[in-house]
């Protein structure tokens, strides 16, 4: 055990946030899955232990393994991921498993589990963008050599995800724009990207296969008073959970809205947390993600290599934007989407890919620490040599 702890490197605050979010996840999902267990005729403990708890432990294991691997290896892995991801997204659109009126999942043969291909696509695109922006820095202003290859990958992935999952595609597009800014792409080119993204958005929104679903959600959000109660049901139940939670909540396990919300253990888990732990509990969750973003920004500013900085920036932006998008939906500040709360919501593939993202960030952090240690040692050796030759008086 001590040997394992000795090998655990990276930002200690991020490790603490991971542990806290994992514990919150187990407690919140344990409470929120009561109704689901009842419908399936299983004990809550069995449902939790056989699924969510195993994935939480697997996730922590993935974080540990990913953080031990030098983050530079992910540059090579990103090419393989992109080669696999694009055909997989196409396959998902055509042959994917339909859940909640959307083809977002692919069933894994033999074991029968399903996974959401957009989770893999997010990780693939961010790592690939970080690699491309680093590789093209010498010619970053060149449209043909840098801009077109970089934006080609962004646009293809955006469209393929947006056709089945617009909210995830928009968040990923936003993260890509932030990476382009950090990667020194010119403002003029970024403006062109945004204009092109807007055109693609209009195409997906008005001509895509899920256009009716997207328009319905926007109309429901903008004009809830004009909608039927069945269309605003999820949002209404979430608001009831928020209102009855008060400042300190009803207490762990005492939620009543988990019996009415369709997905209290995933999409609306933040509403259940506030109902049981109150506004105070909700603020604590928000602070944890803000501290995560702050610690990641510190890693970005201290990273010795451009690839590490871009990688940590992209993944941290992706995690925090997704977290606040989920919370915004739960409190009624955005239309209903299927975005989980990172490291908290129940969901196997989401938990695994989120954990890998955390592991990569910690890998960059580990490299920052090791480089800082080398610099510190070199400085000490220089001072020691100067003392020996009499350049600096040795006190004490």
Automatic annotation (TrEMBL):
<feature type="transmembrane region" description="Helical">
    <location>
        <begin position="343"/>
        <end position="364"/>
    </location>
</feature>
<keyword id="KW-0133">Cell shape</keyword>
<dbReference type="GO" id="GO:0009252">
    <property type="term" value="P:peptidoglycan biosynthetic process"/>
</dbReference>
<feature type="transmembrane region" description="Helical">
    <location>
        <begin position="13"/>
        <end position="36"/>
    </location>
</feature>
<dbReference type="GO" id="GO:0005886">
    <property type="term" value="C:plasma membrane"/>
</dbReference>
<feature type="transmembrane region" description="Helical">
    <location>
        <begin position="268"/>
        <end position="294"/>
    </location>
</feature>
<dbReference type="GO" id="GO:0008955">
    <property type="term" value="F:peptidoglycan glycosyltransferase activity"/>
</dbReference>
<feature type="transmembrane region" description="Helical">
    <location>
        <begin position="150"/>
        <end position="183"/>
    </location>
</feature>
<keyword id="KW-0573">Peptidoglycan synthesis</keyword>
<dbReference type="InterPro" id="IPR001182">
    <property type="entry name" value="FtsW/RodA"/>
</dbReference>
<feature type="transmembrane region" description="Helical">
    <location>
        <begin position="108"/>
        <end position="130"/>
    </location>
</feature>
<keyword id="KW-0808">Transferase</keyword>
<comment type="similarity">
    <text>Belongs to the SEDS family. FtsW subfamily.</text>
</comment>
<keyword id="KW-0131">Cell cycle</keyword>
<dbReference type="GO" id="GO:0051301">
    <property type="term" value="P:cell division"/>
</dbReference>
<keyword id="KW-1133">Transmembrane helix</keyword>
<keyword id="KW-0132">Cell division</keyword>
<dbReference type="Pfam" id="PF01098">
    <property type="entry name" value="FTSW_RODA_SPOVE"/>
</dbReference>
<feature type="transmembrane region" description="Helical">
    <location>
        <begin position="190"/>
        <end position="208"/>
    </location>
</feature>
<keyword id="KW-0328">Glycosyltransferase</keyword>
<dbReference type="GO" id="GO:0008360">
    <property type="term" value="P:regulation of cell shape"/>
</dbReference>
<dbReference type="GO" id="GO:0032153">
    <property type="term" value="C:cell division site"/>
</dbReference>
<feature type="transmembrane region" description="Helical">
    <location>
        <begin position="306"/>
        <end position="331"/>
    </location>
</feature>
<dbReference type="GO" id="GO:0015648">
    <property type="term" value="F:lipid-linked peptidoglycan transporter activity"/>
</dbReference>
<protein>
    <recommendedName>
        <fullName>Probable peptidoglycan glycosyltransferase FtsW</fullName>
        <ecNumber>2.4.99.28</ecNumber>
    </recommendedName>
</protein>
<feature type="transmembrane region" description="Helical">
    <location>
        <begin position="48"/>
        <end position="67"/>
    </location>
</feature>
<keyword id="KW-0812">Transmembrane</keyword>
<feature type="transmembrane region" description="Helical">
    <location>
        <begin position="73"/>
        <end position="96"/>
    </location>
</feature>
<keyword id="KW-0472">Membrane</keyword>
